[in-house]
């Protein structure tokens, strides 16, 4: 029974840290803040995590697991509607862990273990899978393009995803809401426009209209 209680405390610390990092900013939150938020002693927190960076590493692993589940699906989008749903799921995950992207370079410089995990995930899993999905859309006839085009497009899509919340927040006095996800997706789809085949252009434009309506909705 005690073992179960320890596991619950561990998860509560990770969950509370994610909430506080997202709402207050990771730099403003210390382990003492987290312990106080949970009404536990700092010593109890340190029993599970030696420092804040260990908590951040666990949150990154959660983010990696959730995003990998989406990226590694055998069934991939075959048209523009599928692409919208697919990338909305990607942005949903990134939104849940948005603190990771608020000052990602500082986090990576501060934590060598996180840096290694992050770079490995980005270059060995995320970038190849984005490229694979784009290639499947080409093979399915929705997109056109050569290998070099798709290499550049996959990289540009990931750069937008990685830095979007920082950029969008800077335009809104560092205030983000969930519509930031839709604004990010619109930017991704603007990158796709030159590659959309003529017979899919009407569907592409309909998708953009749907996204615009989401932005305008209360």
TrEMBL record:
Keyword DNA-binding: yes
Residue ranges that the Swiss-Prot or TrEMBL entry lists as coiled coil: none
Classification via InterPro entries: Homeodomain-like_sf, HTH-type_Tx_Regulator, HTH_TetR, TetR
UniProt keywords, alphabetically: DNA-binding
Entry-linked Gene3D superfamilies: Tetracycline Repressor, domain 2
Pfam families: TetR (PF13972), TetR_N (PF00440)
DNA-binding span(s): 30-49
Span of domain HTH tetR-type: 7-67
PANTHER family to which the protein is assigned, alphabetical: ACREF/ENVCD OPERON REPRESSOR-RELATED, TRANSCRIPTIONAL REGULATORY PROTEIN
UniProt protein name: TetR/AcrR family transcriptional regulator
């Amino acid at each position: 029974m005690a073992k179960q209680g320890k596991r619950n405390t561990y998860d509560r610390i990770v969950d509370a840290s994610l909430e506080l990092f997202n709402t207050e900013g990771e730099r403003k939150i210390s382990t003492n803040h987290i312990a106080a938020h949970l009404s536990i002693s700092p010593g109890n927190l340190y029993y599970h995590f030696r420092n804040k960076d260990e908590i951040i590493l666990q949150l990154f692993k959660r983010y990696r697991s959730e995003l990998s589940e989406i990226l590694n699906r055998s069934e991939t989008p075959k048209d523009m509607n599928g692409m919208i749903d697919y990338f909305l799921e990607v942005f949903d995950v990134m939104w849940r862990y948005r603190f990771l992207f608020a000052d990602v370079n500082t986090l990576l410089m501060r934590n060598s273990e996180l840096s290694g995990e992050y770079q490995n995930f980005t270059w060995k899993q995320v970038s190849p899978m984005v490229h694979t999905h784009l290639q499947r859309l080409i093979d399915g006839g929705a997109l056109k393009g050569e290998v070099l085009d798709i290499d550049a497009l996959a990289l540009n899509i990931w750069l937008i995803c990685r830095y979007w919340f920082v950029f969008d927040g800077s335009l809104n006095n560092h205030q983000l809401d969930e519509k930031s996800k839709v604004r990010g997706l619109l930017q991704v789809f603007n990158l796709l426009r030159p590659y959309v085949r003529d017979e899919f252009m009407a569907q592409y434009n309909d998708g953009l209209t749907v996204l615009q309506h989401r932005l305008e909705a209360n």
